[in-house]
Design a protein that fits this description.
The chain is 40% helix and 20% strand. Helix 5 packs across helix 12 and helix 7 crosses helix 12. The protein is elongated and about 105 Å long. The chain starts with a helix and ends in a 9-residue tail after the last strand.
């Protein structure tokens, strides 16, 4: 979250940013609670000083007549302090709850617009894949090649769950290994993370762990949640730590399952694998010196581009507008892959993103770095999707489909799978 003092000192700018982000948040209430909490803290300090002074006076040689009023004063002060401590804690909880609703400030270059349509295309790699036939979508391809079973997934686990089958299982493992190898070459420490995290870690990253609008699955009877992304577990790795400046940037890469309720997600572009409740993803996370975070965001985006160029998937980069930014993000670049089966004539669909969250997450997670004498500053955190298997499968199946129903694989991926094409089984689909 933002520093409440920053909100108070930059109230007009914060109000404007809240408006541009199209979120419901009350910066004025945060300032009022911040001032009330600070005033309560000052009163507490005054009472505690009075209590200490009273205790010091009782250390001398006193007659019973002198001691009695001091004892009574001590009791009064103790009761007043307890009441004020409870009031201070209540104000602090309310302040934190309201401050969490305030999004990070936005980069000056971020397009100011309300939703996805306002994202600004920056550059394109490759050209939309031409087909001499009517391109099928990945659902049709996956079913005809016996790669994906949505029907049984829905029967066993509910809508938006699925089974990968046959060569698709190998494809998933190959894609994960392909991405991990790319990140190892880029100097990332590879990790396989837990699929669950404590609520305080989830909330510290800016995700709402509970409630009707939450996208998170909370585990009943525990303080755990299933993670929506390994960003949560990678960022939590150094929660509460004071890092050494010379060790920055610390670059972690995590593979995990991701679980999302996708509350309210619907529409033609949510079909099939595009929005699902569970998928496998390789995530990048960086703990950065504040002076380097903007440059590192460009680096993360470049790594993502290299991964998808290797897969020969046409894409474009967009600068995410203020209304489409997640709360923690200061700036975010999305990669949108060309998906020939999307809509009537193909369209771009988000396949990865990379975000600079500045110190927004680090403040609640308590992640600092030691830089000379004095106060330890907060690190900046960045995250980026190296590869989400589900959406990458969409792009692969749709871009490399052939008229005869087969799908070729790019050479970079075939090196991991041991096969360079997927063909319909003789005799048709098998169970």
């Amino acid at each position: 979250m933002l520093d409440p003092k920053f909100i108070r000192d930059n109230l007009d700018a914060v109000r404007e940013n809240v408006k541009n982000r199209h979120v419901t948040a009350d910066a004025d209430l945060v300032v009022r609670l911040y001032d009330e909490r600070n005033q309560a803290l000052k009163q507490l300090e005054t009472l505690r000083a009075s209590r200490n002074a009273n205790a010091d006076r009782m250390k001398g040689k006193l007659t019973p007549e002198e001691r009695t009023p001091l004892i009574e004063e001590g009791k009064r002060l103790k009761e007043s302090i307890a009441q004020l401590e409870a009031h201070h804690e209540d104000l602090d909880r309310k302040l934190t709850a309201e401050a969490q609703k305030i999004p990070n400030m936005s980069h000056p270059s971020a397009p100011v617009a309300e939703g996805e349509a306002g994202n600004l295309p920056l550059r394109t790699w490759g050209t939309p894949t031409p087909h001499a036939f009517k391109a099928r979508d990945h659902v049709q391809i996956g079913q005809s090649l016996d790669l994906i079973d949505f029907e049984t997934g829905a029967k066993v686990a509910g809508q938006k769950f699925y089974y990968l089958k046959n060569q698709a299982v190998v494809l998933e493992l190959a894609l994960v290994r392909y991405a991990l190898d790319a990140l190892a070459r880029a100097g990332f420490t590879l990790m396989s993370t837990p699929d669950a995290a404590r609520e305080e870690i989830v909330a510290g990253h800016g995700f709402n762990p509970r409630g009707a609008e939450s996208n998170i699955y909370a585990l009943e009877g525990t303080d755990l949640c299933l993670i929506a992304t390994a960003e949560i577990t990678l960022g939590g790795y150094h929660a509460g730590a004071v890092l050494q400046a010379e060790d920055l940037p610390i670059k972690l890469a995590g593979v995990s399952h991701c679980f999302r309720r996708e509350a309210g997600a619907a529409g033609q572009f949510s079909k099939g694998l595009y929005r699902v409740h569970q998928f496998t993803k390789v995530e990048m996370f960086v703990f950065s010196h504040p002076s380097a975070s903007e440059e590192l965001l460009e680096k993360l985006t470049s790594i993502e581009e290299g991964i998808f160029q290797g897969l020969e998937i046409p894409y474009r980069i967009v600068d995410t507008c203020t209304g489409d930014l997640g709360g923690p993000a200061y700036r975010k670049f999305d990669i949108e892959a060309w998906m020939p089966g999307r809509g009537d004539n193909g369209d771009w669909g988000e396949i990865t993103s990379a975000s600079n969250c500045t110190d927004y997450q680090a403040r609640r997670l308590g992640i600092r770095f030691k830089e000379g004498a004095g106060k330890n500053p907060l690190v900046h955190t960045l995250n980026g999707t190296a590869l989400a298997v589900s959406r990458t499968l969409i792009a692969l199946l749709e871009n490399f489909q052939r008229e005869d129903g087969s799908v070729r694989l790019p050479a970079a991926l075939a090196a991991y799978t041991g096969f360079d094409e997927i063909r319909p089984a003789a005799g048709g689909r098998k169970g």
